[in-house]
Amino acid sequence: MHTPVTHTLALRDYGHSHGSHAHDHFQVLIGLDGVLEIEVEGRGAGIAAGEAQVVAPGDRHDFSARRHGAVCLVLDTTQPAWARCAERAPPDSPQLHTLARYLAQCMKQPQASALALQHGPALLLEAWSPAPASPSDSRRRRIDWPLLADWARARWHEPLSVADLADVACLSPSQFAQRCRDEQGVSAMHWLRSLRLAHARELRLGGMSVAETARRTGYRSPSALTAALRR
């Protein structure tokens, strides 16, 4: 079963008071006015007007605005494709910041705010990391297989599908499936099953019980894990 992607889009005013938290979704902050001081997992930065940052799920971040406060457009999203954006520096993209300001204006108008929420998340992702325009372009897009493997290993409790992997790789499911066959020599689901089994072997070799290993790697029961290991 494919987990639905959810989004919220908001304009947020930040004051001098210090805040600190973590959440289980991606948070995209785009500066519109003032400077928001933010420290993510010990790494400090400032988000001024025209600058942006992605906070990954689980990353604790501390934040406060400078003396005149700060205003940011904030996207909270479970879209897994933002994982690639969180791994690299924000683009120096006039289109991204022009779009953010346009969406901010829409958020102030009741009739336009629903339209901004409907289309804004996909447009922001496209402006941050443009999707391939054609199948031939997609074949040139590099897949970071180790990063994708790490992403999957953190989500064995979810029923991962080829579509989920394709979302992270910013490809269509059919494009991702073909790239996996070309570059890994197996189908996408075979690659995913092999990755899960390899992780289970690591945990068992480290002395973890069969039951706990099955729970951590998403097998439906200890006997299912034992059968997979025997095969």
In short:
By secondary structure, the protein is α+β, with helices and mostly antiparallel strands.
Tally of individual domains = 2
Strand content: 15-25%
Could you tell me the radius of gyration in angstroms?
Answer: 20 Å
Mean pLDDT value? 82
What is the second-level CATH architecture of the largest domain?
A: Sandwich
CATH-defined superfamily of the largest domain: Jelly Rolls
CATH topology value of the largest domain: Jelly Rolls
Largest sheet: 6 strands, antiparallel
Task: Please provide a written account of the structure.
The structure is a single chain. By secondary structure, the chain is an alpha+beta fold. The chain folds into two domains: 7-128, Jelly Rolls (Sandwich); 135-230, Arc Repressor Mutant, subunit A (Orthogonal Bundle). It has ten helices and six strands; from the N terminus they run E-E-E-E-E-E-H-H-H-H-H-H-H-H-H-H. Strands 1, 2, 3, 4, 5 and 6 form a six-stranded antiparallel sheet that branches. Helix 6 (162-169) crosses helix 7, helix 8 (188-205) packs antiparallel against helix 9 (210-217) and helix 9 (210-217) packs across helix 10 (222-230). The longest helix has 19 residues, at 110-128. The chain is elongated, with a radius of gyration of 20 Å.
Which helices and strands occur, and which strands form pairs?
Layout: E1 7-14, E2 19-21, E3 26-40, E4 43-48, E5 52-55, E6 61-77, H1 82-86, H2 94-107, H3 110-128, H4 135-140, H5 145-153, H6 162-169, H7 173-184, H8 188-205, H9 210-217, H10 222-230
Antiparallel strand pairs: 1-6, 2-6, 3-4, 3-5, 3-6
